[in-house]
Request: fold
Amino acid sequence: RSPLPFPPTRTSTIAPRTMSSTATAASLSFTARVAPSGRALRATSRAPGSPHGRRGVNTVTTKAQYPNPDYIAHVQAEFPAKGVATAEEGRCLWDAGYDVMDVRAVEEIDQNDNTPCPNPAPPGQAKGNRVRVVPLINAVRRYDSKLEKKVYIQTPNADFKNMVQKAFPNKDAKIMVACSDGRVRAIAALDALDEMGYTNIVGLRGGANLWTREWDAKMRRRNLPGKHIQNYLHSGDSPQLHGTGSQFQMADAQTYDDWRDETVWVV
Reply:
């Protein structure tokens, strides 16, 4: 993914934004002591001077992520200066009070039933109030006989800035900006917000496509890290999953389309 330069139009305290921003916080790690596999256990017992220490315990280092407290604190200290957040970093910023401004077209969100930005209701309320839809471009989906498929008929939203001010009247509001994939409209919207004087603005790398793959409607992790392990002793397994390991993996695998939006949005 080649960086997309963010051309500042005026002097700004916000770092230049690119959607290939390196996640410094992702380099944080923590150490866990876990039981090794049977094969590794036998190898450990045979190896003289094994570096594993006590037999039956391995030291495993993995990247820190949400909800690791040190990782959260590190991420929150980096923004908004860092400019662009991954879905993992964005989850930490959500906890720090960053709301989401979704700049996709309303019809675009409606026709993508699986990609509304998560907006969980706070305790005692029926609906969430931390996602505001402010389209940068209005669009309707129509069939194109030449292309033989539906396309978006696009119109710039002339009322965009007024809608932003109504949604976020405080210029110090903490805002994460998301479009479909974070590559075109989000950057243009960040530029506009910067010109309007908003100071705590962050782009969401991968946009709603990657955001909703990582977090469900209640902002819980959608796919837990790790892999499935076949358990032949469990009494409640579904039928036909124990023929081969490959059947089990395919039954539990979750696949996604390319996260990049194929529509060319004109901003």
Notes: The first strand starts at residue 29 and ends at 34.
